[in-house]
Specification:
This protein has helices at 7-13, 139-151, 154-158, 186-192, 194-200, 285-288; strands at residues 3-6, 24-28, 33-38, 47-49, 54-60, 63-69, 72-78, 82-86, 92-95, 101-107, 116-121, 128-134, 184-185, 202-204, 213-217, 220-224, 231-237, 240-244, 247-251, 255-259, 265-269, 274-279. With 294 residues, the protein is mostly beta strands. Residues 1-168 are annotated as: Domain A (catalytic).
Length: 294
């Protein structure tokens, strides 16, 4: 069954979850897509590494995502109202501050194939101090025990790699050449491409070198079906009617709908309606890593 949410009401009802020590709340976590909101302050030293991608959108305030790209640390500053797509296999460490709220979308990991890593570096260097690989089911609940293990470790005490630094070989290496794009204002992007949305019906926000399909849908009707992936629909402007397996849902601005995998659905927008559609099909992963096989 498709699940509708009015975002502002949901955030207000769960505002206590965005404060320390929790700082996050899952909006959708039982299925293939993981959609959650994160608050602050939460300034951290650990880096997260995964094969899948992450969509960031800053609803309130600005954050900084520290990344490791091409052997150097790089800050990705995401301002309020901006959207950013983080490629897979890039170590990243989100730094969130007080009075900030942001949405993050990622997908479930393919069982027995995809593993996450939590990694610490020696000081300001890129030398690995300590890391743990694990199969991620619920990142919010799994990170705490791993972080505690690090702070209890000899490596943390000495700030030097030791016998406990590595418990298994790495499941994959960070992408050595991929460069991130800059975050951009979602509203400004929509304004710039409004005529295309009205005439063509849809437009990609990110090209096909990414795994994730993030589309803006404009005036008109669109029928869709993905047998493997859920679809997250986010109404930005105007309204939208979505029929899912015979059920009709009406989306107003700032409401969302999660469409189950393998469901045939039709979305219809009148003039002025703009919907963001996000799907993360694990079979599209190869198009993002083709350069690593050359």
């Amino acid at each position: 069954m498709a699940t509708k949410t009015t975002t502002a009401q949901w955030i207000d009802a769960n505002k206590a979850s965005f404060l320390p020590p929790v700082c996050n709340k899952m909006l959708h976590g039982d299925g293939q897509l993981k959609v959650f909101y994160v608050g602050g302050p939460n300034v951290r030293k650990d880096f997260h590494l995964e094969e899948g991608e992450e969509v960031f959108y800053q609803r309130q305030g600005d954050i900084n995502v520290v990344t490791l790209q091409n052997g150097e640390f790089k800050d990705i500053k995401i301002k309020e109202g901006e959207i950013f797509l983080l490629p897979g296999k890039i170590p990243h460490s989100p730094q969130r501050y007080q009075d900030t709220t942001g949405m993050v979308i990622e997908r479930e990991r393919v069982k027995d194939q995809e593993y996450d890593c939590l990694r610490y570096y020696v000081g300001e260097t890129t030398n690995i101090l300590w890391e743990r690989w694990f199969y991620c089911v619920d990142l919010g609940s799994q990170l705490g025990p791993v972080i505690k293990d690090f702070f209890d470790s000899e490596e943390h005490r000495t700030n030097q790699p030791g016998l406990g630094s590595f418990m298994c070989p790495a499941y994959f290496e960070p992408d050595p050449v991929r460069q991130t794009e800059e975050p951009f204002s979602l509203q400004q992007w929509i304004t710039k491409h409004r005529s295309e949305l009205d005439s063509e019906g849809s437009k990609r926000l990110f090209d096909l070198t990414y795994q994730t399909d993030v589309l803006a849908l404009g005036e008109g009707k669109l029928k869709a079906h993905n047998p493997r992936a859920e679809t997250f629909l986010w109404q930005i402007e105007g309204s939208c009617e979505v029929e899912v397996s015979g059920e009709l849902h009406t989306l107003e601005a700032d409401s969302t709908l999660l469409v189950p995998a393998d469901a045939v659905f039709t979305s219809s927008r009148p003039e002025g309606g703009v919907t963001i559609s996000v799907t993360m099909d694990p079979l599209t992963k190869s198009r993002a890593f083709g350069h690593l096989n050359q």
